[in-house]
Amino acid sequence: MKASTSSLLLILAVALLAIQVAHGMTMQIEPRTTECFKYKSQRPGEDFTFEFVVTRGGLLDIQFRIVNPFGAVLHSELHFFPEGEEFVKTIRSEAGGEYSFCFDNEMSRWTAKVVKFEITTESSPSQQASSSETLKPLERSARNIKRELERVLKEQKYLRVREQTHRDTQENTYTRVYLFSTLESCVLIGMTVFQIFYMKKWFNTRKTGGV
Fold first, then answer.
1. Cβ(115)–Cβ(52) under 8 Å?
2. How does it sit in the membrane (predicted)?
């Protein structure tokens, strides 16, 4: 019993050591503006992953670029997200410093874009734990659990983005239908009032002419 409890605690400890640290945000990029998110890499050789998706606005498109601490552009491209699939970019830092992730909405004249993004860094287990013969099977189990959890989390994020996109489309459609229905009702009421006054004036004219 004690051995089983110890093994379970070791698996949980390794899983916690291998867990990823994620920072997620949602940002609205106004028309004709550029917004940048900065991440400071602590050491050379650090791997971090940047994921983002446009959930609302226009054609669900935006210009995205990555700039390293020396000012060099690592990535610059116009991305479209019609199906809600996230764009994922993994970077290995060449040196410590601030990396800039910029969303450029300068090409849009009227439409704001809502961007959901996340930056993930992975903390590796200590060298002592990874080199221990006793922990190798436990580490493999923890990595398998971590991999499955990441797959489930990614699927959940994708479904949430699709749900939000469809909800926004439905609300936008409802707003348009409501506005057109209101406009149609106003036009019908206006035409009815005009016809009443016109017919009243016509009868009054005939009555006056007859007299």
1. yes
2. Single-pass membrane protein; Single-pass type I membrane protein
**Cβ atoms of 55 and 161 closer than 8 Å:** yes
Distances in whole angstroms, Cα of residue 56 to Cα of each of 80, 163, 169: 11, 12, 9
124 closest CA partner among 142, 106, 104, 103: 142
Identify the residue with better confidence: 14 or 29.
Answer: 29
Q: What is the 3-state secondary structure (H, E, C) of 132-200?
A: CCCCHHHHHHHHHHHHHHHHHHHHHHHHHHHHHHHHHHHHHHHHHHHHHHHHHHHHHHHHHHHHHHHHH
SS3 assignment, position 128:
helix
pLDDT in tens, 70-127: 999 999 999 998 777 788 888 888 878 899 999 999 998 888 998 988 888 765 444 4
Residue pLDDT, tens place only, 167-198: 777 888 888 898 999 999 999 999 988 888 88
Q: Give the rounded distance of the alpha carbon of 113 from its chain centre.
A: 10
* Amino acid found at 105: N
Distance in angstroms (rounded) separating the CA atoms of residues 21 and 7: 24
Bridge partners for 6 per DSSP? none
Four-CA torsion 51, 57, 58, 64, nearest 10 degrees: -30
Cβ 75 vs Cβ 141: under 8 Å: no
Provide the whole-model pTM: 0.59
The tokens describing 21, both together, are 């640290």
